[in-house]
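>> received
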Amino acid sequence: MFDLERWQEIFETIGKNKLRTFLTGLSVASGIFILVILLGFSSGIQKGVKTQFEQDATNRISVWTRVTTKEYKGLNPGRFIQMRIGDYQAINEKYEEDLEYKTAIYNIWGSQVNYKGETGNYRLEGVSPDQQFIENASLTSGRYLNQDDMDESRKVAVIGYVIQKDLFKGENPIGEIISIWGVNFKVVGVYTDPGGEREESRVFVPLPTSQIAFAAGDRVRSLAYTVKMSDNFDEAVAKSTAISENIEQDIKERHIVAPDDRSAVRVNNTLEEAKKIYSLIAVIRNVFWFIGIFTIIAGVVGVSNIMLIIVKERTKEIGIRKAIGALPSSIIGLILQEAIFITALAGFIGLFAGVGLLQLVSPLVDNDFIKSPQVDFNTAVTTVIVLIVAGALAGYIPARRAANIKPIDALRDE
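>> returned
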């Protein structure tokens, strides 16, 4: 129930101690302000990292090979490990139940692409249709590669949006013929990629076509897979890690590579990397909460000190109230209400200042690691709860002290 007289008392007390109340409120507002800014940037870091992982499927396993660095079974170091289509087929067969999307890749960096006098150098990749989902590519027009393209070794190509802008100058490229190192391909689709311009500067063609057209035989440069996800993230990471390790071991056994040669066969597991990064973000966010909470505690101690001083100054008044029948609960309620009001008012000022500042700087902060730092609704609600609890804690000890004042002692107080 709203008690006007009690609120008049609170404002009168605050009015008598303007400077003291202002300085204490400033410490609470600063604590909330710092907490909001820290949590906002924590959210920005999380968005930035998430964007990085969205460039490709989060549950991707990539396999590529290099030169051996160790002697093994009579074979000297320095051998280049060349994967072939047979390696890809063997892995597919062995892990068929666990793999979602898969492709072998044959690529040529800096391939010369021509269209009606326009020329550019872009990366050519011979892939299977699953590459669209492994790369998180989205079509803006036309279609992606399909199984018929693979089976018939068709000379068709899907180009990135950057290539469309560079070579076609706004024209519709679907159905047009481009030349790649003198070999003609028909453009059947245009794609965009969340990885940006670097990822959109590629030409995808059917893997068999690339091997035939550019005399690659059965050679492939790398393999890419996604693992079927389970509902439990930790289980999915463990499963993906186990498959990655097994694939690495299989490739090494097929090409007679030392088990401890970390350079010859490289396997990258984005799901495992994602877990490490997200765990680090969680630690950063907890540290930010720790710093913010202890900054707020400093302000709460200030509010508690103010309330203790106020109780001391009003000892005689409180004693008279109790002498004429005021209940301890009403005394406690008055002190708690005043403490919560001061803390909440200062805290909301800090909260709105922090949110306002983030809204101003958010459009200006956009790089690979921090994107649009903002405070979400759940964080704002949590901050409000922290404010209320902090105010109650700030007023509890002074309120208990006020409630324990004996009328006879209070009347003797000078």
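>> The beta strands are 60-65, 99-115, 118-127, 138-142, 156-160, 177-180, 183-192, 202-206, 222-227, 265-269.
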